[in-house]
Amino acid sequence: MPFDANLVLHDGTAITATITPTSLTRTSGSIVLNIKKSPAKGLAAVMIVAADLAEANDTMQVSIQECATVDGTYVEVTRFPLLTKGTGMPGTYIRRFDTDKGFVRALITCVDSDSGGDFTVTGVYILLAYHPFTYL
Fold first, then answer.
1. Average pLDDT of the chain, as a whole number
2. So where are the chain's domains?
3. 5-130 fold
4. 13-43, pLDDT tens digit by residue?
């Protein structure tokens, strides 16, 4: 992996369905990150999308969520633009946010428009970075 695994919410593994991380163990390329020991309050979520969606009318929505516990109720803190075939991919997106919670995850919601079970997008990385100018 070309990035520090401690900052990677999704590691580039092909996305073929909605991914809702629920643990500190990476599954389907995604994980809940424990940021309790981080002094950072201002964070930036960076989403790098290397390839377009496979089919027209399929969509992918990524939101960053926070929670006080790894297995609690997550609340959205920021959202990336809704992606569809031919709009915004490949591309890089940055969303800044502030959190005082201990856990962060990326909820990746996919809609396969023809319900054919053939949704796919490859090369998606979602990363965390410290951002000192979050609210300037």
1. 88
2. 5-130
3. Jelly Rolls (2.60.120)
4. 999 999 999 999 999 999 999 988 766 668 8
